[in-house]
Amino acid sequence: MEAEPPLYPVAGAACPQGDEDRFGVPDGPEAPLDELVGAYPNYNEEEEERRYYRRKRLGVVKNVLAASAGGTLTYGVYLGLLQMQLILHYDETYREVKYGNMGLPDIDSKMLMGINVTPIAALLYTPVLIRFFGTKWMMFLAVGIYALFVSTNYWERYYTLVPSAVALGMAIVPLWASMGNYITRMSQKYYEYSHYKEQDEQGPQQRPPRGSHAPYLLVFQAIFYCFFHLSFACAQLPMIYFLNYYLYDLNHTLFNVQSCGTKSHGILNGFNKTVLRTLPRSRNLIVVESVLMAVAFLAMLLVLGLCGAAYRPTEEIDLRSVGWGNIFQLPFKHVRDFRLRHLVPFFIYSGFEVLFACTGFALGYGVCSVGLERLAYLLIAYSLGASAASLLGLLGLWLPRSVPLVAGAGLHLLLTLSLFFWAPLPRVLHHSWVLYFVAVLWGVGSALNKTGLSTLLGILYEDKERQDFIFTIYHWWQAVAIFVVYLGSSLPMKAKLAVLLVTLVTAATSYLWMEQKLQQGLVPRQPRIPKPQHKVRGYRYLEEDNSDESDVDGGGEQGQGDCAEEEAPQAGPLGPEPAGPCRRPCPYEQALGGDGPEEQ
């Protein structure tokens, strides 16, 4: 059999007919250059373009999955380690035998203070850090700080635990603000890659229609929170596979507990000071912490290796070039927007409800009645319910956007009113199914809350110049709410439920009022984002000395053209010489497709 001819002719090789083809053009080394390097005659440009943008869309999906998995592993390791650490340090025998008079309770209280108090200052530095490092690298740095917190538990001392807890508190708001910004940007990029033909017709500088990325944002936020809520289940694996084997049963730990639920005060009043039957070996603890450290390192690799950039390089330069003073001020200036002011109660409630599920309900209703050994299963029920219900956010594709938020708030309202009148008896297991059922329903409400809020912010504020500011404000208010819960941890359960109920009603009312204003056509007042001010030095962009100056009306630099950096032409005997082309096009202009002043 004869060999099949190659699909593509080899450049420089002689044809079977000899050194000339059938048109008389010489082949081989003496062939014309166009014949050697020209496009293949069967090349289909439209098909290649379609394949290119399909790869781009798959890359965006990969970015969303990698960021979701990285966030899930990071938060799961953090919660699991913190939970195991607090239970071990609570046991009186463990403290005395392992650490003597080192004062572990005092170290734990300062560690929790560092985690809960430090984020209060996050509004001052989070936008600056995100703009300085970039969204992806801010995520990577924050995940690395979480891994640092895990590593310090190999050597539990004041000078390791407390500084790492403070660093962790500083990284909480930047991590989740950059995560929210990243998912929103991925939805916008997916729209661009799906409608690339429309983008070509409109031109590269034309913005897509408002709200065009909303369907993709709904899907990506549902995927992200479906992964994220699984972190609460992942955090219980150290309890199930390690710590539960060392715990006393409920008859010992709950022996002095007299009241639970709505009649309880503080956190587990009367709980036994010894919860461990036997002390875990140090070698076993090191193995568990090494596994958690490996998972945290895996999360870092996921973010580093699989998450692509959220912005193009020229966009990153533009975001930094508005001036660091402006970047610092803009989160505060966004308070003038009535939409954000109306959503602040929902931001606060979002922090209240997730911490109430993990501490107030899980401890005051769950552990207080069915024992510490069932804490992990209660939180797993909450986690699985929230993860599955995150997919309900896709209902926003067909229903009004207010439906998920209002439905989640209504479900939490019913559950909160029910908890007001329920006081389960200690050491009684026949009502445990009610606890699991309430945990699942609370998870459903949490999922509708988180998914609805993040999607709403991505729809209302779709300008890429604002998204990091908006998500910083959102997660900062959540951090403030968590700090308030930390301060009020010793309050009676009825007071906690009353605060939760008032905040929920206020949040739902304020949100519906905001939607009514938008339907009436009231235009929100947004702060102006200054235009980027570039200073060219070779191929680098450096900031102006006074980075706060922008081209505001009456500003000192208004009206300066492309030749602003050039010295004024010297006046000749007949007056100033006419201005000619003053510089070559910079890389930024080349990326935008312009040729600078030389084309004029």
Automatic annotation (TrEMBL):
GO MF entries: Toll-like receptor binding
Residue stretches of biased makeup (Acidic residues): 544-554
Chain's role: Plays an important role in innate and adaptive immunity by regulating nucleotide-sensing Toll-like receptor (TLR) signaling. Required for the transport of a subset of TLRs (including TLR3, TLR7 and TLR9) from the endoplasmic reticulum to endolysosomes where they can engage pathogen nucleotides and activate signaling cascades. May play a role in autoreactive B-cells removal.
UniProt-listed PANTHER family: PROTEIN UNC-93 HOMOLOG B1
Tree of life domain: Eukaryota
Localization annotation: Cytoplasmic vesicle, Phagosome; Endoplasmic reticulum membrane; Endosome; Lysosome
Segments passing through the bilayer: 60-81, 111-130, 137-155, 161-183, 216-243, 285-311, 343-363, 375-398, 405-423, 469-489, 495-514
Coiled-coil residue spans: none
An annotated GO cellular component: endosome
Record-stated family: Belongs to the unc-93 family.
Keywords (A to Z) from UniProt: Adaptive immunity, Antiviral defense, Cytoplasmic vesicle, Endoplasmic reticulum, Endosome, Glycoprotein, Immunity, Innate immunity, Lysosome, Membrane, Phosphoprotein, Transmembrane, Transmembrane helix
Name this protein carries in UniProt: Protein unc-93 homolog B1
Sequence segments annotated as region (Disordered): 543-600
GO biological process: adaptive immune response; defense response to virus; innate immune response; intracellular protein transport; toll-like receptor 3 signaling pathway; toll-like receptor 7 signaling pathway; toll-like receptor 9 signaling pathway; toll-like receptor signaling pathway
Lineage per the UniProt record: Eukaryota, Metazoa, Chordata, Craniata, Vertebrata
